[in-house]
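Onboarding guide, step 5: your first structure request.
Type a short instruction followed by the sequence, for example:

Predict the 3D structure of this protein.
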Amino acid sequence: MGPVIRYLILWLTEACNLRCCYCYRPAVMTPKTMRGEVLEQALGLAARSGRPFHVQLSGGEPTLVPELIEQTAELLRDSGLSYTLGLQTNGTRLTPDLVHLFRRHGIQVGISLDGPPPIHESLRGAFAQTLAGMQLLEAGHVPFRVTTVVSAASVGTLDLLVLLAGGFQWCRGIALDLLTVKESALKGGVAPPGPEALRDGLKRLWQSLVFVNRHRRHPLRLRELDGLLRAKQKSTPSPFCHAARGESLAVRPDGAVFPCGQVVGEERLACGTVWDVDAGSLASLCGKDRPRGVPCRTCPVQAFCPGECPSRLSFNAAHHGALVCTMYQTLWQLWQEFKATEKGLEAVGRKDSRGSVVSCVSMLGPRRSEA
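The system replies with structure tokens like these:
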């Protein structure tokens, strides 16, 4: 029957209109675009098990090929399968027609935004165009989330990122991706934050998040806190992601497949093609979602640690693998302190703008849908 695919990443194109300093995309002389037969074969692999699955459109910049976005959405809609569909974009190429397409097909939109104008310009460029794309999503009433790559350059402005995202009522959340130290990042002079800088940045982010959410109808969700809270509710630890279960498949435009979108082009992790998937290689990241050489026994989240992206660990383990521990420990401490404060305020019946008692969950309890 072949491997069960619950998370399918489609690199619709290798082309991109930006040149991010830390880009994970392999350098290519002539960027390729996915052919229809590759797309259909990949979707067939995900559908084979009969179980619900998620399709994530990526690249490159997927909005450079809007016809493939529409084709994917229509194929899935007509399939009768149980699926969700998402897209990660730099936001610079959004149009009213694309926004309408997102809304019509219920596409989950992620915007790559690394901070306020000077930071985003230095790392990615085209801040004004990204902001214009977010404004189009806002005007079209399309929910979206912001994903930021946390580096030494951006960690000090995480609080400003929250304030920026908080100004968009249709922005539903923020996700923090710790920088993956691949060769491209090293060449671009971008480095991960130090532990102290990360702790300080998260504390400032938290202050902004609490402030912003007290003034929003729909609170901004924080993906990393969500991971902690979901893990805390489970009796036994779960793998960090579908790649850590061997249930993820990333497809390059030419049909080559890899276990995760972050390692597309890494030939040491290649898993064949959409016509001949090597199930053994696809499971190469299984069980590799825990940092090595860190003092887990004394960690306050040891019993319910969500783990870390196995692809990121494969690049960062030697020098920066423990940063995820710093992140979880800091967020857990902030959450515990927040809960204690909120319980005291609830005891005296503090109300929000709609007349409801503000609870810890309503203010900062994020939710993250899974396929």
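Each response can be followed by summary notes, for example: The first helix runs from residue 36 to 47.
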